[in-house]
Amino acid sequence: MNRLWAPWRNKFVTIRKIKGCLFCIKGKKNARLFVIKRTGHSFAMLNIYPYNNGHIMVSPLRHVRDLKGLNDEELLDIIKLTRDIQKLLEKKLRPHGFNIGINTGKAAGAGYKGHLHIHIVPRWKGDSNFMPVIADTKVIPLSLKELYRSLVY
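RE: above sequence
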């Protein structure tokens, strides 16, 4: 599906080269990866190819394929961070609802199947309109940098 806005993507495509796992971010800078928050076992970052404004992914710091690989402490940490990010999005963006989900394995729709991550996608009444149907284009009104600044600062 096309996106109506994308001036920041050229920099990402031409400069940002990630070696290894996208979600293995230990030692990497928050702003460069759009990391919103880190906890003892997890982190939350903006999805650079969002389904909707405010689309955030929450992931364990440890490289784990699915929920079965998490110990109890990590599981509690990632769920608490998911809750906290939902609260942050409610406060900053005031969506009418959320899609929150985990895709594990290619057959389940996991775009990145090797490292567990939870999608948090804010939704608004009317956020699905004629553009995806008629023009195969999704309209996203905020740039990633603008959204990042509003969530972190």
